[in-house]
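Late entry, written up from scratch paper. The run itself happened at the end of the previous shift, but nothing got recorded in the book at the time, so transcribing now.
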Amino acid sequence: MLASELAEILTERCAAAEKREKVVAIHPAGIEFANELVGQPINEIAEIGTGHASYGMEIRKGIRLARFVALRG
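Output as recorded:
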């Protein structure tokens, strides 16, 4: 999967999130796409997808959590 596709998915997830849950919406994306995100420019994806390169840290949290959790629903 391309970085631009991952950024587009992140944009959609953040847009669909409630006002005070935009940052929290990043973690499930990191969990769901953990394997696809390996080797990708995480900060660039965060910048394109959210407007904040610093949210790359939140994506990385999701990637690390993927080993321990499963998404529901």
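The longest helix spans residues 3-16.
(Scratch paper discarded after transcription.)
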